[in-house]
Design a protein that fits this description.
Elements: E1 5-14, E2 18-21, H1 22-25, H2 33-40, E3 44-47, H3 55-70, E4 79-83, H4 94-101, E5 108-112, H5 118-131, E6 138-145, E7 163-173, E8 178-186, E9 194-196, H6 207-211, E10 217-219, H7 221-242, E11 252-255, H8 260-270, H9 281-284, H10 291-299, E12 308-315, E13 319-326
């Protein structure tokens, strides 16, 4: 019996219409386009403006597009995992809301939270259900409405984040394609440097927490930057060595879009040239769980069956990891 692997058989992204430019941010805080671009690589980001609409709306649009594209009926989906740091509400899960709105009536659904590394964690988790033969059609969604937890008076964070989502279909492969290996890591001692102070069970919402603006992202920029540069580069190099891959063997690096300098450092450590690196941070900023699937979506027509892809991410927790996969189809056919 041939070994079963979990292959991505379809990808779809979704971003809101509203574009928040660096020029507009200059009216909010003391910053400018040159400063933002030189330090982050970001020129603009998308924002979900509609009142009362949360992360699920981003995921729903991505999943609807994915089902249409793959010609798979919603009722045939076995499982939906939503990787998100900005759920619509603490419960029910955003994945449950997505499953309901796309009529995936036979799927069970749950959220997975690992900050910016969540999409990788979710892909790795979903792959085990496929490899064991338990399920045949799994959708993994990476979606975040980061604008809902950003303080637009804080120039250290408001320039970085945007809203967006991507969804992939995972199905069994007996051709040796799909997910080959993963290395996932975490270090909870990093939690003090990147977190949201209030809104959880340790510090529930109150007038005091709202007045103190504690329901927004807090980030110690320098500490997080140093940890991200080291961790993403290290784990990407580690997965290459573990699988005997040279830079020439790697078709594409698909890095989390947190900062252009972090992306460059990771590519340099791997020995991969810029022509092999997926980058769209200039258009979307850091969409947290949306960055990697949005890259795959935008580069889909350049991907060929059998291409070796290295996915890498770093996020709050601290969490980080890398996945090695072989692309399963010729996207331009």
């Amino acid at each position: 019996m041939k070994k079963i692997t979990a292959a991505i058989t379809g990808i779809q992204g979704y971003v809101p219409d509203y574009i928040l430019t660096n020029k507009e941010l200059e009216t909010y805080v003391d910053t400018n386009d040159e400063w933002i671009v030189s330090r982050t690589g970001i020129k603009e980001r998308r924002i979900l403006k509609e009142e009362g609409k949360g992360t699920s709306i981003l995921g729903i649009n991505a999943v609807k597009g994915l089902l249409k594209k793959t010609k798979i009926a919603a009722k045939d989906v076995d499982l939906i995992i939503c990787a998100t740091a900005t759920p619509d509400m603490l419960f029910p899960s955003t994945a449950c809301i997505i499953a309901d709105k796309v009529s995936a009536t036979n799927a069970f659904a749950y959220d997975l939270m690992a900050a910016c590394s969540g999409f990788l964690y979710a892909i790795a988790t979903a792959s085990k259900f496929i490899e064991t033969g338990t399920y045949k059609k799994i959708i993994v969604v990476g979606a975040d409405k980061m604008s809902s937890i950003i303080d637009y008076n804080d120039r250290a964070t408001c320039i970085i984040f945007g809203d967006g989502a991507g969804a992939v279909m995972l199905e069994p492969s007996e051709e040796g394609l799909g997910i080959q290996d993963s290395i996932l890591k975490s270090d909870g001692s990093g939690s003090e440097f990147l977190h949201m102070k209030a809104g959880g069970s340790a510090k529930p919402a109150s007038h005091d927490t709202v007045d103190a603006r504690e329901h927004h992202v807090f980030q110690d920029g320098q500490t997080v930057f140093k940890a991200a540069v080291t961790s993403m580069a290290d784990v990407s190099e580690e997965i290459m060595k573990k699988n005997n891959l040279s830079a020439n063997d790697v078709s594409w690096l698909v890095p989390h879009q947190a900062n252009q300098r972090i992306i460059d450092a990771t590519a340099k450590r791997m020995g991969v040239g810029n022509e092999k690196v997926m980058v769209n941070i200039e258009k979307y900023g850091n969409t947290t769980n949306g960055t990697i699937p949005l890259c795959l979506w935008e580069w889909e027509n350049k991907l060929k069956k059998g291409d070796n892809l290295i996915l890498a991410a770093f996020g709050g927790g601290f969490t980080w990891g890398s996945i090695y996969l072989k692309w399963a189809y010729d996207s331009n056919k």
